[in-house]
Amino acid sequence: MSKEILNKTLQDKILRFIKNNVKNLTFLLILLTLTLFAYFFYNEAQKKNEIKLSEQYTLSTIQFKEKNIDESKKLLENIINKSHKFYSPLALYFIIDNNLETDSSKIINFFDKILSINSIDQENIDLIKIKKAIFLFSLGNEELIIKTVNPIINSESIWRNMAIKLVSDYFLSKDQKIKANEYIQLLNNKIEK
Fold this sequence. Notes:
mainly alpha
């Protein structure tokens, strides 16, 4: 008997709560529905964007093969400006590998734009910095090379040894053996630990 009374009291409390908070519960339900709708809409938009960038990249390579260099370059620059974590770096590497851009300051700006993409993880950012430093070799800008790879050298990145070797090789190519040895010593100290 007491269980029946307890159940009846509990049911009454629940019904009273629902009646008193109908507006709030309705608002909460609508808000939850809209949030789920927005989430799925956003995901679908991201997928469509991925497909569009993929198609643009493919079209740019086709344009390149068909000797429509300006059109290919325009498409690739557009992809870089979209700041996509995968296709933007890929587009830049295509430009560099195929010598589509001769203005080195523009290429450096492309690198900087890509390095500012927040969705790229740190190890890939470090790899892109290494590639930027390799590009900078041809310019011979020692200060910019060092500035680019120093954050990697002073970190625990998997690219640390590569960055040290890269700077060492740069100094050896410039016949600056003392500076090269300083970086080689950094590399040796890390290996000994």
